[in-house]
Task: structure prediction
Amino acid sequence: MNSQNIINSDFTIIIPTLNEEKSIGILLSEIEKCAPETKVIVSDDGSTDRTSELVTAFDGNLDVLFLDRKKEQIHGLTISVLDAIKTCKTPYFLVMDGDLQHPPEAIVNFYRSLDENNDLVAGNRIKVVGKWPIHRKLMSYIAGLMGKMTLVLKKRSSIKDIMTGFFGSKRELWEPIIDKEKEKFTLEGYKVLFDFLKIYPEKLKISYVDYVFGTRDFGESKITSKIIWLYFKSLFKKS
Ligand SMILES: Nc1nc2c(ncn2[C@@H]2O[C@H](COP(=O)(O)OP(=O)(O)O)[C@@H](O)[C@H]2O)c(=O)[nH]1
Ligand SMILES: [Mg+2]
Result:
């Protein structure tokens, strides 16, 4: 670590949620164990289950904010993350899913890597637990490849797994882009990091945190064919 060690309180963990009552309480407890001073923003798109109650009543010392997006005009994972980045006050943030597929034990490695003055620390799936059907594997591979080609053609920074939703970065890099170029993001989509890479004009200093992508043991995936279609459309969107 360098002399200006990042401490937990320099961080906000952003968790986009939609009906994650079965996992959100466990996740907050896990975060409290491994990063007790961290701030958390749960950016929720109008969950109809007990997500809101569980977050607001969380009985721990973590500083947790429930960002209620229920009445917003546009809903989506990407816009929920962007709104949370605009809301957060810390110099660094980390985005992770609320369904425990992203392991909380990896959080500290993101902190360390950002401490080494990287602009972006990207989660890198070294293994996917459980069996993905062959069509999902193929789809994911093709989608990743096409995304990487888009980034090369646009002369943008690229990363190993451009589909990841587990990443940390500096708020100061994102804020001006959100303020001036928000419409270039696919706000209702899922690939907020890919959109950012496509838009951000300069080379980023990047590092990786390897992690094992867990199975979804609670709740259901919210991914739909509309979301997949939005991603493919975004490959050709002007930025
Ligand atoms: N705020 C918000 N969160 C969402 C939305 N869709 C999914 N999420 C959350 O984003 C995370 C990843 O979604 P998930 O459905 O697990 O995607 P998968 O892991 O790719 O199947 C989870 O925490 C979801 O609750 C949405 O439209 N808005
Ligand atoms: Mg998931």
